[in-house]
Amino acid sequence: MNAFAYHFSFDFRVGIRNKTLMLMNYLFPLGCYVMFGALLGSINPGFLDTIVPAMSVFAVLSGALLGMPDTLVSAREAGIFRSYKINGVPALSILAIPVLTSMLHALLVTVIIALTAPVLFDGAAPVNWAGFLLVFLVSAFAFAGIGALIGVISSSTRMTVLFSQLVFLPSMILGGLMLPFSMLPPTLAKVALVLPTTYAMDAFGGLAMGQTAGTHPWLSAAILVAGGVLAFGMSIFLFSWDSKNATRKAHPAWAVLAWLPYLFGLGWSLLG
Amino acid sequence: MNESIIQVKDFRKTYGSFVAVDGISFDVRRGEIFGLLGPNGAGKTSTLESLEGLRRTDGGSLRIAGIDPSRQARQLRAVIGVQLQTSGLPDSFRVEEAMRFFCAYHGVATRDDLIERVGLSDKRRAQYHELSGGQQRRLALALAVAHKPPVVFLDEPTAGLDVASRAMLHELMRELQVGGTTILLATHDMAEASQMATRVAILLHGRIAAIGTPMELTATGAGLTKISVYTEADCLARADAAFPAVRQVQRQENYFVYFSTDVGPTVSALITYIQAQGDTLVDLRVERPTLEDRFLEITTKGTAR
Fold it and tell me: What is the pLDDT at residue A98?
């Protein structure tokens, strides 16, 4: 097994061994899935049409935004990245491996959700499984990229919580997970268009769930891919080996560039 | 032994307007344990981290086995091993995983033998945070030398350890030295430096205040040698003549204690006097100033070499 593969395997096991990561990768999204399925399903039966993609995106959000950034900041503060640098662990591995393992954890949770939702809650199953997998991968990549970027630019774990919640909470409320995008008031609908979850739900609807009306799934998928590439690219560009040795290539504020694809989506929607 | 493997020449490191290291030069010879001493803020960490390739230099040159740490990072990794002051390992790492992980990145076979050598065989499955401080340091040392680097940097390797853990680490360091490994040891522990280091350099305000073997450094200081003498008939109580080079005399129970600037003439005169008085010498102890005394002398007075 080469170093990258061993690093990946170790990082994946830590995602289960570490209590915080276990909570954010598995227990929290699965607990919320059961709770939302039982509660929202009875209050708003329409939720069951999107429970599989919505809870899949929720699992991705939980692992990528609430779990991963904190571990990156803690590792940097504990001098672990310095030790890695001395021993030849490249920055690309330090960032790419948590992104990949976070996607794998979310995929496992998604499989559980996709297989059990029709049985437990009479939720709608994807009609196109290949499309479902494709949209899952691009959504997971987009959010994992944002998670890595938050971990890189946060000066402390407190800042990580702030940045993560800044993305997580609006995504939960306005991103189409709880309420369909079509039900949002016009002003909030515009705000929702700068949230990656909106594009993830749109792409799931069009490419996996058979909802053709009012969706632009390929455009949404392309925006998510562009967002993921930019976020991950910026996280490599802004990466710093340790908190004391300020050798960052640019100011962390440049991280906002990762939002350009979503701003493009907003502009396209306004003009269209 | 005389071939230098680490060369530091006119090395300078600044942080804004603050000069952390101000043009220091020294060589470390192959196979020696070289102690880097100094109070906090003296420039030890900046020097170490620049040699380890973690910081860029602002002047002068650094070479480790001919490699420039700031330009040849890949080659540097093969020739140095580093035990950092901070943990440098994720808490969830198991001992055997850590060894496999670092060996994989260095491209060498997993060194399970080292886990055994540092006494962690029964802790292979233990996670890093479950190890005691001494076990963590031993694991860190094992990881630092897993790829058999010719140069090892140890930053405060025994700070806060109990006597047994400290002795075990010292034994490992000696083993490495015997095997031809060069060790650059940064420490605040003067006894450790005195006991382990072949040579030491004392840094003060970014400059080298003194460099040499521990014995050379203690010999060149202004510290007084303590000579304690106990005779059968206590003839020294009646001594009215001043002995050469003695600066101070104290009575401590049965002993007369002389503080001398030049031990040879003082001891010689004392013995002559005791014999002349027909007395018999029961005990004579000579205690040279320690490296710690010399360190305090240099750092409190701020004297340069």
Answer: 95
| pLDDT over 70 percentage in chain A | 96
Chain B residues within an 8 Å CB radius of A2:
104
Query: Which range (B141-150, B212-221, B280-289) has the least confidence?
Result: B212-221
Predicted confidence (pLDDT) per residue in B91-147, tens digit:
889 999 999 999 999 999 999 999 998 889 999 999 999 998 888 988 998 999 999
B18-29 sheet: strands from edge to edge: B18-29, B4-15, B59-64
Considering only CB atoms, A2 lies closest to which of B86, B89, B104, namely B104
Contact criterion met (CB below 8 Å) for A69 and A150: yes
Rounded Cα gap, residues B166 and B155, in angstroms: 14
Instruction: Give chain B's mean pLDDT.
Output: 89
Q: In which band, very low, low, confident or very high, does the pLDDT at B241 lie, cut at 50, 70 and 90?
A: low
Among A residues 12-41, those touching chain B with beta carbons less than 8 Å apart: 14, 17-18
Closest chain B residue to the Cα of A74, Cα to Cα? B90
Tokens for A238, please give them.
């802004």
Residue to test with chain B: of A19, A68, A87, most B Cβ within 10 A:
A87
Q: What is the DSSP string of B206-236?
A: TEEEEEE-HHHHHHHSSPPEEEEEEESS-GG
Sheet holding B225-231, edge to edge: B246-252, B255-260, B225-231, B281-287
Please determine, for residue A188, whether its predicted confidence score (pLDDT) is greater than 70. yes
Question: Whole-angstrom Cα distance, residue A87 to residue B76?
Answer: 10
C-alpha–C-alpha distance, residues B258 and B251, integer Å: 9
- Residue A126 gets which letter from DSSP? P
Q: Rounded mean pLDDT of B86-95?
A: 84
Distance CA A143, CA A99 (A): 9
b/e sequence A105-138, b meaning 16+ C-beta within 10 Å: bbbebbebbbebbeeebebbebeeeebbbbbbbb
State the alpha helices, DSSP H only, in chain A.
3-17, 19-22, 28-43, 51-61, 68-77, 80-86, 91-121, 129-153, 157-174, 186-192, 196-207, 217-237, 260-271
pLDDT digit string, tens, across residues A218-230:
999 999 999 999 9
Between the two ends of chain A, the Cα-to-Cα distance in Å is: 51
Q: List the 33-92 stretch of A: residues with Cβ below 8 A of B.
A: 75, 78-80, 82-83, 85-89
Integer Cα distance of B195 and B245 in angstroms = 29
| Chain B CA closest to residue A83 | B88
pLDDT digits (tens, 9 = 90+) for A60-118: 999 999 999 999 999 998 889 989 999 889 999 999 999 999 999 999 999 999 999 99
Instruction: Answer whether residue B303 shows pLDDT above 50.
Output: no
Please indicate if any CB of chain B lies within 8 Å of the CB of A248. Answer: no
Partner residue facing A18 (CB), from B56, B92, B106: B92
**Quick one: DSSP state of residue B127?**
B
